[in-house]
Write a structure and sequence with these properties.
This protein is mainly α. It has 17 helices and no strands. Helix 3 packs antiparallel against helix 4. InterPro entries: Poly_Biosynth_Transport (IPR050833), Polysacc_synth (IPR002797).
Length: about 450
């Protein structure tokens, strides 16, 4: 019995979904630890400025990845089938990715520095011109590691990909702890530490060969054009989705300042722990949904969709309830006693966190049935609600609680729109998801209980 259990666990852990979940989970825990330490060690205003910087950097990284990653996956997948031994063709695609990545980074950095110099409102988002220079430096030194993750993703090599993500977070955390112990913290050195952490992992990626930098001269105009034209269709959805998550923070920093951002960031980071497993699980369902769609099995697609979405929602719901009930101790545990006021925000975030599984599944479902344009409409619809509601909450009520409440409305409306668009093509419904998910959950619990009883009786005999 023990050997069978261990073998089953090992089989599960070898799957890409499990590798992705473990890697993302480990990186998220390290990142959360870093956030907690910075919240305790930095003044609230300085911590809020750091959060705004991270939001801006993440948005740019999403732009860079959205433009190049999906196209790289698409075209190299074709190469693996049609030109497995044609290494020169692969190098041309890799070189084109490098060239476009370098071009984008070299252009955006100086552009942002100029914006912060001439437009004060932009400075409220990024910090100041000096911080914008750090933004450019970090974007450059992180590029080799990012490109390595794209190439590894294209080859479905998820283990080394997760190593890069985890080690980047771990090195940054260790540098912060070391500087704090030797009283060299914080100040602008925090940006330098972030640059060192990303640069160190990039050097490692270059040395070990994952970034394939020798392919840079091989890129050609045909590959660059193909990547650009493919990426411009996916970048809208990715950037819109990222903006929908970060617009409230950017507007909060511009209107109420970094201290309000710091208070808002602590419960928001805790809520992201719910989003991480949801994203990891939802992504693994897409290949089967696509296959069923291509086979014209709309009934089976609807059944699988409702079973998966409903089961995930029921599994994640107790975590949202626990976060709502334990909001104050959780916020205090992460940020310290001076962030206790964030408990109300945490409760608001847990309410929309309960909607995350169904919202994510509706978006993936639209992509799976070949309707990405509808997913883009859904994302832009949610972005409009988020930005409009955030402006009202901040300019009229000047309240972070009202701002958090806007997120509940945004995700609820986005989820309803997603299901309505899906229902035009696939026979699904919200009530069907809940009912089917409940039936599946009860069946899983019953099977587990019977297996446990049978094993116990067998061992007793």
């Amino acid at each position: 019995m023990i050997n069978r259990t261990l073998n089953a666990v090992q089989t599960i852990l070898r799957k890409n979904a499990a590798v992705s979940l473990l890697g993302n989970g480990t990186a998220a825990i390290i990142s959360l630890t870093t956030t907690g330490l910075l919240a305790r060690w930095m003044p609230r205003e300085a911590f809020g400025t750091w959060v705004l910087f991270l939001v801006t950097y993440t948005l740019f990284d999403t732009l860079r990845s959205g433009l190049l990653l999906n196209g790289m996956i698409q075209y190299t997948a074709d190469l693996r089938v049609e030109a497995r031994t044609f290494e020169a063709s692969l190098k041309r695609w890799e070189g084109a990715v490098w060239q476009l990545g370098l071009l984008m980074t070299m252009v955006v950095g100086p552009f942002l520095i100029g914006l912060t110099y001439y437009f004060p409102m932009i400075s409220e988002w990024v910090g100041n011109s000096e911080t914008a220079v750090w933004f450019w430096i970090i974007s450059l030194v992180s590029l080799p590691a990012n490109i390595a993750t794209w190439f590894l993703h294209a080859r479905s090599q998820f283990k080394p990909l997760q190593w890069i993500r985890v080690l980047t977070q771990l090195v940054f955390l260790l540098l912060i702890i070391g500087c704090y112990q030797f009283q060299l913290f914080p100040g602008n050195s925090l940006y330098g530490l972030f640059a060192v952490a990303n640069g160190a992992i990039s050097l490692w990626s270059l040395f070990i060969g994952w970034s394939r930098w020798r392919s840079i001269p091989a890129g050609r105009t045909a590959q660059r054009n193909a990547l650009f034209h493919f990426g411009k269709y996916t970048i809208g959805t990715l950037v819109g989705s990222n903006l929908q998550r970060s617009a409230d923070t950017l507007l909060l920093g511009a209107i109420l300042g970094p201290e309000a951002v710091a208070l808002y960031a602590i419960p928001q980071r805790l809520t992201q722990l719910l989003d991480m497993p949801v994203r990891s699980v939802v992504v693994t369902a897409m290949p089967r949904l696509v296959k069923l769609q291509q086979q014209g099995k709309s009934g089976e697609l609807a059944a699988y969709f409702q079973q998966s979405a409903g089961l995930l929602w029921l599994v994640m719901l107790p975590l949202s309830i626990a976060g709502f009930v334990l909001a104050e101790p959780l916020v205090t545990l992460l940020g310290g006693g001076h962030y206790r006021d964030g408990a109300t925000l945490m409760r608001c975030f847990m309410l929309y966190g309960a909607l995350l599984p169904l919202d994510r599944y509706s978006g993936v479902g639209l992509d799976a049935i070949g309707k990405p344009q509808f997913n883009l409409v859904k994302v832009l619809f949610m972005l409009c609600i988020q930005v409009g509601g955030a402006l009202v909450a901040l300019l009229v009520f000047r309240s972070t609680t009202a701002l958090a409440g806007v997120s509940i409305v945004t995700f609820a409306m986005g989820m309803l729109l997603g299901f309505r668009l899906l229902k035009r093509h696939v026979p699904i419904s919200l009530t069907g998801c809940i009912q089917t998910g409940w039936t599946e959950l009860v069946g899983l619990i019953t099977r587990f209980r019977h297996e446990w009883i049978r094993s116990t009786v067998k061992n007793f005999r």
